[in-house]
Write a structure and sequence with these properties.
single chain, 167 residues, alpha+beta, Mannose-Binding Protein A, Chain A, eight-stranded mixed beta sheet, 23% helix, globular, binds calcium ion, transmembrane, CD209-like_CTLD, CTDL_fold
C-alpha cells in the first residue's frame, strides 16, 4: 500500500508575518498610516501643543519624533496642512528638545524653514504671544508642511501622533 501522507512545509518569512501583524495592529487602532516600524495618526481635531502632547501620552504614544529625511518626506506628503510635532523649547529658549528628551543633535536632522533674507525659523516671534514661540509644527498657516516652524504653543493645530510598533 502506498503511503499517501503529504507533508506540508510552510516556508514563510517571519519578517513578512511580523509586517502583516503590524498592519493589522495599526488598522485595529484606526491609525491612518504606517511607515517603517511606526504607526502614525493624523488628527482631525485641533488642540494646543500641550493638550496634544497630553492626548498622545494618554493613548500610549507620543507626538511624532522625526529622525530622518525619509520620515520627514513621508509625513509631509500625508499632512496637507500645518500639524504639531513633538518638538519644543519650552524649558530653555533656543534649546529644542523632542518629547522623549532627545536633542536635535542626537537625532541628527532638522528641517527648519529658511528664508532668503536670513530670517530663518525658529524665530521665537512675539507679536501674537509674548511668551514667544516654543512649539514646533510641520508648516504654518500659509506655508507647506515640508519644513518646520516654531509657533505659539497656545495655537490650536492638528497633530501627528506616533505609536512605536512594539508587539
Ligand atoms: Ca522659543
Ligand atoms: Ca516662527
Amino acid at each position: 500500500m502506498m503511503d499517501k501522507t503529504v507533508r506540508l512545509e510552510l516556508n514563510v518569512n517571519p519578517l513578512f508575518i511580523a509586517a502583516l501583524l503590524l498592519i493589522c495592529y495599526c488598522l485595529s487602532l484606526n491609525l491612518s498610516v504606517l511607515f517603517g516600524v511606526k504607526c502614525y495618526y493624523f488628527s482631525t481635531d485641533k488642540l494646543n501643543w500641550i493638550m496634544s502632547r497630553a492626548y498622545c501620552a494618554e493613548t500610549g504614544g507620543h507626538l511624532v519624533i522625526i529622525t530622518s529625511r525619509d520620515e520627514q518626506d513621508f509625513l509631509s506628503s500625508h499632512a496637507h496642512e500645518t500639524h504639531w510635532i513633538g518638538l519644543n523649547d519650552l524649558e530653555t529658549e533656543g534649546k529644542w528638545m523632542w518629547v522623549n528628551n532627545q536633542t536635535l543633535t542626537e537625532t541628527g536632522v532638522t528641517f527648519w524653514y529658511k528664508r532668503t533674507d536670513e530670517q530663518h525659523e525658529p524665530d521665537n516671534w512675539r507679536q501674537e504671544d509674548e511668551s514667544g514661540e516654543n512649539c514646533a509644527a510641520l508648516g504654518n498657516e500659509s506655508l507647506g508642511t515640508d519644513v518646520w516652524f516654531d509657533a505659539s504653543c497656545l495655537k490650536k493645530k492638528k497633530y501627528i501622533f506616533a505609536l512605536p510598533a512594539v508587539m
